[in-house]
């Protein structure tokens, strides 16, 4: 579980489920959780100075390479979801996050997930080493 991970950089994104995000059985459509995770990653990046524009300005992209989601319970319209995102230390040219999504009202576990992003050059080539700017960022954050 997340408490066992070696990390210090966490953030919580609060999301209210909109009517347009539920399906015909009035539960959040499964694909919308991917957007919630992305929203959490973007906010985390702005908070810690490692947003997508930072990567871009340093000559890199970081597309998602692997994404796993484990659905635990359903959420519905107007539920407030707390997307807890944890940066996980990894070696080389990748960024790894773990997520827990809870419903705010009763703290029910809705979803757990993990994402791995790989650094690529602007030309689309995988960059297996840790880019210099990322190494400096890690040092600044004692990672």
List keywords for this structure.
143 residues, alpha+beta, 5-stranded antiparallel β-sheet, two-stranded antiparallel sheet, 3 helices, 7 strands, 34% strand
Total strands: the figure is: 7
Count helical runs: 3
Distance between the termini: 20 Å
Q: What number is the mean pLDDT?
A: 94
Taking strands numbered 1, 2, ... along the chain, how are they ordered across the largest sheet?
1-4-5-6-3
Morphology: elongated
Question: What percent strand?
Answer: 25-35%
User: Could you state the order of secondary-structure elements as H and E?
Assistant: EHHEEEEEEH
Indicate the radius of gyration in whole angstroms.
Answer: 16 Å
Structural class: alpha+beta
How would you sum up the major sheet?
5 strands, antiparallel
The percentage helix is: 10-25%
Please give the oligomerization state of what you see.
Answer: single chain
Model regions low in confidence, pLDDT < 50 over at least 5 residues: none
Can you offer a commentary on this structure?
The longest helix has 17 residues, at 32-48. The protein has three helices and seven strands. By secondary structure, the chain is of the alpha+beta class. 22% of the residues lie in helices and 34% in strands. The chain is elongated, with a radius of gyration of 16 Å. Strand 4 (80-88) and strand 5 form a beta hairpin.
How are the SSEs ordered, and which strands pair?
Elements: E1 10-16, H1 32-48, H2 52-57, E2 60-61, E3 64-71, E4 80-88, E5 94-103, E6 109-118, E7 120-121, H3 132-140
Antiparallel strand pairs: 1-4, 2-7, 3-6, 4-5, 5-6
């Amino acid at each position: 579980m997340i408490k066992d991970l070696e990390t210090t950089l966490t953030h919580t994104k609060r999301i209210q489920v909109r009517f347009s995000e539920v399906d015909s059985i009035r539960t959040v459509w499964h694909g919308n959780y991917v957007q919630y995770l992305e929203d959490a990653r973007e906010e985390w990046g702005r908070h810690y100075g490692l947003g997508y524009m930072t990567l871009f300005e340093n000559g890199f992209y970081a597309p998602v390479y692997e994404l796993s989601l484990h659905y635990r319970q359903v959420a519905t319209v107007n539920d407030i979801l707390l997307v807890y995102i944890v940066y996980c230390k990894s070696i080389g040219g990748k960024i790894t996050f773990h997520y827990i999504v809870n419903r705010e009202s009763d703290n029910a576990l809705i979803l757990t997930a993990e994402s791995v992003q790989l650094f690529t050059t602007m030309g689309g080539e995988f960059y297996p080493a840790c880019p210099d700017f990322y190494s400096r960022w890690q040092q600044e954050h004692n990672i």
